UniProtKB/TrEMBL annotation:
Domain SSD stretches: 250-407
Gene Ontology BP terms: endocytosis; molting cycle, collagen and cuticulin-based cuticle
Record localization: Membrane
Family membership noted in the UniProt record: Belongs to the patched family.
Protein name: SSD domain-containing protein
The UniProt record lists the keyword Magnesium: no
Length: 667
């Protein structure tokens, strides 16, 4: 039976034969042309840039969390670019932080953070946290209030968990204090062993925020001031550095792989007749993937596509493909007639090897080409680089290596001239060890083929495959997706250690952010009741901590309105926007400013446009792993869909990673 592709083989062979004859006649022309192409392609490196945001690159572009995260970030990004810094503090001996030495250093550490300053080249002055945090300077107000009460030893004030009342103001403390001990009857906070501090930086100049973050990292890790504390810090920039480090730490291994392959190529290229050996040509052929790598990165970078750490694996792939092609070419070359002219030998080599290389390249292009249409950025980038690399490597090996063979072919021509006899070499004319190795090779594989064809071996292989497939199936069913930085970064990394400890600590309390994008007219009692109903739904959903963990402005503002005795015609209390600016200007209520987007002029005339959107948070507990989180996230999304008039979006920093556990077709 004739294969469908057989009809095209004569045309391919004719094309490659003509190409090979051209290469054999003008080898330098092809070498110079491809080196020039590589040089031109490398100009694309001027646009080279790298992206290492694992949350974005590993999440499907169609995932709902992308929209949800964008809404929350745009809400929080009120004065410029937003950066979130988290600091995890515990005692070095893992004990209580309420002991005098530990508590004293904890307070000092919090004060030192607020004193950190960086130089601003704009106004030519030093700026500190207060210049970078507005309107989120009070994110750790609960921590400050509790530590002041403890430091003052106010026995009249009992600190309750998760919400306590200090100086008449309700304070939600569960966002800051973890690994706690609580009196089950009174809910009084007795002890805590971990503190989590949140710092929101907002500024038009991201470089200033990065400088401040770097100063904080130095304070935590390099200052050595806090001998009783173990401090861990994480920021998006630190996580990005860890992701980038995956590539930079792996890249040097390319040189080791290249060296090993070069040695293997040299040894494998040796023949019984010394003049037929091709160690120099093999080394040059193994170096061709390096040129292909430079050209590939330059070409793709020229399009503006960002480089990602995963692309380093493409370079290993390129090396393997290139070395395979060298073996194919050498095998085809050795099958040619040495008595023929060089041009004819190169033509025959390219005719035979070109067809084989084409088949392998086409399969690579089909395999990686499918990934180009992936909606997951990291997979798409990997596929694009791999597709381009496969094509470039194919062209380079097809044109460059035959040109090298053409230039060195004359070394194989033996004659009996005096000059040839006097030619010296470090190798003998006959390499006996190659001959013995070939005999041993043939003997081993002859015995192996007899062994494989035996009946008992067939039965053994079938049994082995059944066991292997059963174990593989079981393992596949048990597999779960966990793409947190702690799973692929160096375990000794401080950022990875933060993530591991943070994952365990936050199980007791996490925060769900809900942005109400279209609150509507809150003076309308029906609309107000619908809003309260939606909030109650979030507060009573599975794993939710309840109403006592909810933080938002509305209830406090209604208490504020009672002071003004705002009533309707029937004497009932009514909602009005008029006093909202005064409420937010109150020193005790400033921490609500970052949760409301307000049009003050509309407020003064009691118009619904006063509040364009607002944010509230509520607590949930128990679940922290991404595969556990996703069902809960879907329930939150269902609540938002039930109240479409508010265009509510719920989000946690774990949403994007949780969406990674779901197949893309589910979105």
């Amino acid at each position: 039976m004739r294969l469908p592709t057989a009809r095209y083989e004569p045309y391919m062979q004719k094309f490659y034969e003509s190409l090979g004859r051209s290469i054999g006649s003008h080898p330098w022309l092809y070498i110079i042309a491809l080196l020039t192409f590589t040089l031109i392609s490398s100009a694309g490196l001027l646009r080279f840039h790298q992206i290492n945001n694992a949350r974005l690159t590993f999440t499907d572009s169609r995932a709902p969390s992308r929209y949800e995260g964008r809404v929350v970030e745009q809400f929080l990004r009120q004065n410029g670019t937003l950066s979130i810094v988290e600091v995890l503090v515990s005692a070095r001996d893992n004990g209580s932080l309420l002991r005098p030495d530990q508590f004293g250093q904890l307070q000092k550490f919090a004060r030192d953070i607020r004193k950190l300053t960086v130089w601003d080249d704009g106004p030519k002055r030093r700026i500190g946290f207060a210049d970078l945090c507005e309107p989120y300077c009070q994110k750790n107000a609960a921590f400050d209030a509790v530590t002041r009460v403890i430091d003052a030893n106010l026995s009249s004030v009992e600190i309750a968990y998760p919400t306590t009342e200090i100086l008449g103001e309700k304070v939600f403390i569960a966002n800051n204090f973890y690994r706690i001990r609580v009196d089950l009857e009174t809910k009084r906070l007795l002890d805590f062993r971990t503190v989590l501090l949140h710092y929101f930086l907002v500024h038009p100049d991201p470089s200033l925020m990065l400088k401040w973050e770097n100063e904080l990292v130095k304070l935590c890790y390099a200052s050595k001031r806090y001998n009783f504390l173990r401090v861990l810090v994480v920021t998006d920039s630190l996580v990005a550095k860890e992701v980038k480090k995956l590539g930079t730490d792996t890249a040097p291994l390319l040189s080791i792989a290249l060296a090993a392959l070069m040695v293997f190529l040299c040894v494998s290229s040796l023949r019984y007749h010394r003049e037929e050996s091709k160690p120099v040509e093999a080394v040059l052929g193994g170096a061709i993937p390096i040129l292909a790598s430079v050209a590939t990165i330059g070409i793709v970078s020229a399009t503006g596509l960002a480089f990602q750490s995963i692309v380093v694996s493409t370079l290993f792939l390129l090396l393997a493909i290139g070395v395979d092609d060298v073996f194919i070419m050498l095998a085809a070359w050795h099958r040619t007639d040495r008595r023929c002219r060089v041009e004819e030998r190169v033509a025959a080599t390219v005719r035979e090897a070109g067809c084989s290389m084409t088949v392998t390249t086409v399969t690579n292009l089909i395999s990686f080409g499918n990934g180009v249409f992936s909606s997951t950025p990291v997979l798409q980038t990997f596929a694009i680089y791999s597709t381009v690399a496969s094509a470039v490597c194919f062209v380079f090996q097809l044109l460059l290596f035959p040109a090298i063979l053409a230039l060195t072919a004359n070394r194989e021509i033996r004659d009996d001239t005096v000059a040839n006899k006097k030619r010296h070499s470090c190798l003998p004319d006959r390499l006996e060890f190659v001959k013995k190795g070939g005999i041993a090779h043939d003997d081993i594989f002859r015995r192996l083929s007899d062994w494989v064809c035996s009946t008992w071996m067939r039965v053994t292989v079938v049994l082995f495959l059944c066991i292997y497939w059963s174990i593989s199936l079981y393992g596949a069913l048990q597999a779960r997706t966990e793409l947190g930085i702690q799973h692929f970064a160096d375990k000794s990394s401080l950022t990875a250690q933060f993530k591991v400890e943070h994952e365990e600590v936050i199980k007791s309390m996490q925060t769900l952010a809900i942005v109400v994008q279209t609150p509507g007219d809150l003076r309308n009692s029906t609309n107000m009741e619908r809003l309260r109903s939606m909030i109650r739904a979030f507060e009573t959903e599975q794993y939710s901590y309840g109403a006592e963990s909810t933080f938002y402005w509305l209830e406090r503002y209604e208490e504020f309105l009672q002071f003004y005795e705002v009533t309707d015609e029937e004497g009932k209390e009514k909602f009005t926007y008029v006093y909202l600016p005064d409420f937010l200007a109150s020193p005790a209520k400033q921490h609500y400013r970052g949760t409301i987007k307000m049009n003050e002029s509309a407020c003064r005339v009691d118009h619904p446009d006063c509040i364009t959107s607002f944010l509230l948070t509520t607590g949930f507990t128990t679940v922290s792993h991404y595969n556990e989180m996703h069902p809960l996230i879907e329930k939150w999304r269902a609540i938002s869909r039930k109240y479409p008039e508010f265009a509510a979006v719920s989000y946690t920093e774990r949403h994007m990673f949780a969406d990674q556990v779901v197949p893309p077709e589910r979105f």
